[in-house]
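Record passed on here:
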Amino acid sequence: MEDRSNKPKPALIPPHGGYRNLRSYQTAEIVYDATVTFCNRFIDKRSRTHDQMVQAARSGVQNIAEGSMASATSKKTELKLTGVARASLEELLLDYQAFLRQKGLRLWGKDSPEAIAIRKKYQSDRSDRSDMSDPYSLKKASPEAAANTLICLINQASYLLGRQLQRLEQQFLTEGGFTERLYKARTQARKIK
């Protein structure tokens, strides 16, 4: 049987990667860079906490990228790694909250003027920022302002990753995974012979 339909066949390996365009990745990358700055300023470099905070921030970024690249052949892996990225950022969030608590510093409320200002800055066009290596001025901020700024950014990244997970789940339910596409493609190829 010859396939005479003019319908374009879906690619067996769909487009994948593109993680640098994801707002979740961009935000996690800001969190990672800012965490390195924060830890170098306020956490003893020889302490286990310094290393763990930097590694948790790095894990957030790396797992988004790895999941995006794995999406070509495994939606399950993409879902899992996106969840790991979110969990890593949650671990980091707890470290920042503990830092504030242990130092007797104030945790900004979600609706505090400071937190609102950080969210507004986050939502503004990033091209407006004068220093892209330190867009939130953490190199000069007080420990309280720096930790709270990062808490705001981690919450933004976590929110975006939550939405991303919902979208990935829906895609998996409607489109299936790579194994299903392989089976369908092989079945169709057999019919054509």
Summary: The CA atoms of residues 3 and 192 lie 6 Å apart.
